[in-house]
Design goal:
With about 80 residues, the chain is mostly helical. It is about 75% helix and about 0% strand. The protein has one domain. Helix 1 (about 1-15) packs antiparallel against helix 2 (about 20-40) and helix 2 (about 20-40) packs antiparallel against helix 3 (about 50-70).
């Protein structure tokens, strides 16, 4: 789940980059939603190690960045 979340965070950042077209923006938004699901699923999982909890915290921060940032907003208006 953490690996899938890491991929989703990186890919969402790419697709939501400034200047991205509307199709890329939609893909980025879907990936940001998927990242949210990964973070929720992994939250408080009993098998997370201390390193896994740190990775989870970083992914949760990335989810907040994608949720509350201006990434791709200029594309959404086009």
């Amino acid at each position: 789940m953490l690996l899938a979340g890491h991929f989703a965070a990186a890919a969402a950042r790419y697709f939501l980059r400034p200047g991205a077209d509307a199709t890329s923006h939609r893909r980025g938004a879907e990936l940001a939603d998927y990242l949210g699901g990964c973070v929720t699923t992994a939250a408080d999982h009993p098998e997370l190690t201390s390193v896994g909890r740190l990775v989870h915290a970083d992914l949760a921060a990335a989810r907040e960045l994608h949720t509350h940032s201006d990434l791709g907003k200029e594309t959404a208006a086009s």
